[in-house]
């Protein structure tokens, strides 16, 4: 398995190297201006100001997710050097799995990736909770901003629109569901008031201008601005256009705001999955600016940190694993919470996926299991239990894993169909023409394609794309 992974990885890397990176084009006049034609969906009912729930170390947490870049590549760039000087470089921050596709995104909001290792259309059932259950329990406002999402709470697989980088090129796919973690959870997408908080960048502009920016937010730039289809130079141009002015905008970054600039995973699958993560914002203590923190962190640290800060409960999954979920040190120290730091060889290798049993892994399928019901959050609060959760279905007493792929059976619980509730307008192309080659199915097994995927829709995915298989870094 490892050797086929590595050889395919080399193939993929050279294929990516041949891709020409286009020149950056600003998608809007300013980050706080709407851009009706490029950001697509009109702004939609500005969020209302709500009572600010004070946290111990910050009142607002903003995370901005970039894509597939090795630690050194980011840290060496001029734009990141600028942020490192005004922020805190987290020098030992790791993604939780690798390679390929988007398990890191769902892990960052739910504490698990349920064995996910491919790019299929997923929808995770109502009994699986996320950070928004914890935030809602304390009336802490939240939203996710997804650039080029065509409408709020959009349920489609992706969205293809005119190519604004090159108007003579074919339409381009800028928005993908797999980078929009909360919409994948039924507990968010099936509740209209929650789905309306999965917003686009026109909404972002009006929410910031209204002084109604929420207390917790997850921001996903589009496929070119986040580096997925481009490189760190393009990311830098976007950050200069978008983040630099916002850092000086009190409606976004005030003296109680903590901003995490991070990457979903690294690019080189042969080394451990360390990513460049930088903490910025007015809530960062002045004495930490321009310094490093080498405590071991992962994407689960974003959950444990907000739990401690706001006295939230836990999800009882990776966020409750003391090793994997150290709280950002300055927040831990302020609250007198003790981290369990690890260094060097003790740091787990998190650069392989597809090997974990889970409800989203057709090769080693087990049902969605309950969280650890006796876990407590770093704030000493109990686990959040979703209505209808079968708390006795734990890993210890789950049925033995089944290889559904070998049996030719689909993953059970087929609860997602591409396009439902938000199919792209007919004028746009679903083939993603103009996009760089991508993978379909992935995971090295054609059976591992997830919920609700019929043979016909799988065939459609394969039209016009290059199937590379295991090792493709998406
Ligand atoms: C904001 O408040 C107004 C008036 O109460 C209400 O009509 C509107 O739906 C609210 N907007 C959102 C996004 O909740
Ligand atoms: C980053 O810079 C360091 C120091 O100049 C250099 O050793 C390293 O090779 C560079 N890495 C990359 C990926 O450019
Ligand atoms: C959250 O708001 C609701 C409705 O305003 C209120 O009933 C509830 O007590 C609040 N919960 C907390 C923890 O403040
Ligand atoms: C506005 O929000 C509603 C749900 O609140 C959604 O159904 C609709 O598609 C949204 N429109 C746009 C343009 O985002
Ligand atoms: C723009 O797209 C056209 C059509 O695909 C292509 O011929 C041209 O080279 C592209 N321009 C740039 C600057 O990439
Ligand atoms: C933080 O900002 C608020 C509102 O602008 C201001 O009143 C307060 O003095 C500031 N605090 C510090 C420590 O700068
Ligand atoms: C912080 O870490 C970076 C990257 O590992 C390193 O280049 C730099 O020298 C460190 N800075 C300090 C102040 O230790
Ligand atoms: C974790 O270990 C690293 C490396 O020794 C050190 O720099 C860092 O301060 C430690 N963090 C904590 C919380 O002890
Ligand atoms: C916590 O994470 C570590 C490192 O991945 C792992 O070895 C350990 O088994 C996990 N603990 C639990 C209780 O899952
Ligand atoms: C969660 O719901 C799914 C789908 O209904 C079901 O298969 C699974 O057993 C449930 N798991 C728990 C722990 O309740
Ligand atoms: C599951 O079955 C597939 C197809 O027969 C096979 O390729 C794969 O290696 C199996 N995986 C495991 C973990 O047994
Ligand atoms: C977009 O989604 C459609 C299915 O709805 C799929 O056929 C196509 O490959 C996807 N394109 C990209 C770039 O993800």
UniProtKB/TrEMBL annotation:
Signal peptide limits: 1-17
Keyword presence, Cell division: no
Origin: domain of life: Eukaryota
Disordered: annotated segments: 407-443
Segments of skewed composition (Low complexity): 423-439
InterPro entries cross-referenced by the UniProt entry: Alkaline_phosphatase_core_sf, Phosphoesterase
GO MF, one example: hydrolase activity, acting on ester bonds
Transmembrane regions listed in the UniProt entry: 455-473
Protein name: Phosphoesterase-domain-containing protein
GO biological process, one term: phospholipid catabolic process
Keywords: Hydrolase, Membrane, Signal, Transmembrane, Transmembrane helix
Comp. bias (Gly residues): 411-422
């Amino acid at each position: 398995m490892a050797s086929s992974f590595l050889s395919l990885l080399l193939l993929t890397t050279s294929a990516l190297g041949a891709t020409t990176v286009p020149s950056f084009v600003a998608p809007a006049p300013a980050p706080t201006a709407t851009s009706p034609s490029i950001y697509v969906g009109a702004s939609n009912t500005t969020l209302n100001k709500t009572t600010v729930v004070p946290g111990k170390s910050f009142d607002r947490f903003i995370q901005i997710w970039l894509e597939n870049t090795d630690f050194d590549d980011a840290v060496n760039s001029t734009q990141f050097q600028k942020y490192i000087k005004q922020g805190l470089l987290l020098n030992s921050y790791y993604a939780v799995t690798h390679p390929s596709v988007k398990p890191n995104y769902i892990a960052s909001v739910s504490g698990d990736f349920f064995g996910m290792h491919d790019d299929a259309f997923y929808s995770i059932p109502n009994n699986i909770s996320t950070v928004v259950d914890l935030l809602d329990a304390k009336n802490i406002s939240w939203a996710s901003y997804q650039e080029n999402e065509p409408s709020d709470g959009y349920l489609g697989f992706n969205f293809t629109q005119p190519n604004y980088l090159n108007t003579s090129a074919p339409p381009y796919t800028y928005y993908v569901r797999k980078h929009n973690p909360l919409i994948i959870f039924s507990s968010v997408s099936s509740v209209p008031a929650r789905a309306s908080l999965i917003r686009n960048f026109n909404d972002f502009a009006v929410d910031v201008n209204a002084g109604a920016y929420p207390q917790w937010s997850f921001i996903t730039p589009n496929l070119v601005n986040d580096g997925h289809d481009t490189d760190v130079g393009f990311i830098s141009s976007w950050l200069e256009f978008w983040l630099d002015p916002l850092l000086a905008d009190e409606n976004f970054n005030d003296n109680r705001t903590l901003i995490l600039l991070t990457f979903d995973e690294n690019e080189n699958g042969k080394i451990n999955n360390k990513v460049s993560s930088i903490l910025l914002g007015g809530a960062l203590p002045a004495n930490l600016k321009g310094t490093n923190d080498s405590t071991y962190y992962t994407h689960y640290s974003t959950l444990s940190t907000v739990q401690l800060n706001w006295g939230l409960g836990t999800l009882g999954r990776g966020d409750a694993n003391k090793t994997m979920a150290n709280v950002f040190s300055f927040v831990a120290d302020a609250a007198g919470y003790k981290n369990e730091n690890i260094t060097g060889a003790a740091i787990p290798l998190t650069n392989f996926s597809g090997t974990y049993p889970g409800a989203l892994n057709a090769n080693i399928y087990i049902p969605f299991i309950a969280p650890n019901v006796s876990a407590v959050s770093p704030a000493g609060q109990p686990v959040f239990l979703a209505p209808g959760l079968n708390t006795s279905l734990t890993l210890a007493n789950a049925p033995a894993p089944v290889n559904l792929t070998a049996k030719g059976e689909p993953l059970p619980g087929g609860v997602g169909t591409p396009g439902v509730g938000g199919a792209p307008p007919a004028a746009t192309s679903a083939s993603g023409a103009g996009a760089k080659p991508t993978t379909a199915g992935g995971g090295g097994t054609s059976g591992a394609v997830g919920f609700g995927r019929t043979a016909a829709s799988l065939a459609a995915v394969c039209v016009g794309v290059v199937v590379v298989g295991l090792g493709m870094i998406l």
